[in-house]
Amino acid sequence: MTFLPVLVLLMPLMFAALLFCGHSWTRSRILGINVLGSAVTLGLAMALWHRVWTGSTIVSSLASWPLPYGIALVADLFSATMVLVSTFVAFCVALSLRHSQEFNPGRFGYAVAFQALLTGVCGVFLSGDLFNMYVWFEVMVVSSFVLFVFETGRAQLAGAMKYAVPNYLASLLFLLAAGLLYGVLGTLNLADLALKIPQAISGNGTHVVALRSAFVFLLFAFCLKAGVFPLSFWLPASYPVVSIPTLALFAGLLTKVGLYALVRVSTLLFPDV
What we know:
With 273 residues, this protein is an all-alpha fold. The chain contains ten helices and two strands, in the order ααββαααααααα. The model has no long low-confidence stretch (mean pLDDT 87).
């Protein structure tokens, strides 16, 4: 069952690729396939959650590279629950899109970005190392920006910019923190970092300064992405301009991913900082 985390990521990605090839399809077919992709991903998320609940943490190492050098996907009860809730929200929004009258979600590109966003969200939850978490955050931000600008209008474009600029600033801080951690410790695997950071902080010298700086960068980045007060200024400036289904998707997924990353990193890597 170690392949379940991989399937949860591959399924929405495959449906995004399928929908990308369907630029000439009708609205009903595009939205129907979007619902099907969300339903299949939800089913896999349920299977993953049940496997973790009745068993133990699932660790998948892609391409059979040994850890901590390989790309790790980790599903514990926390991450599996977040994946389950997120895929359920996405499925409900996909159903509501079939009856939306505010705009035309059947236009080419919307469903592709929808499935890509779901891929990015699940990728953040299942990432076992910081760099891949950063990559999935970028997939999520780019996809959500596409969903913003899909609804043409000056208000939507202005809201998209007010959303994108703070999130890309947060991504830059995230990348700087990852670079500091890798430069000091030579690894970005979360389990490996959890072992090495306490040892490095207990010493003296520039390593302690670098690690504490990395913690501050990560704290600021995730609080900004999660919209934690007082860094929530971009939320009321961007979310109200999108349609109700898109707003439900954003409100149900995006800030929760930032909160997850904040809790995961602060409790696992820096519990005593």
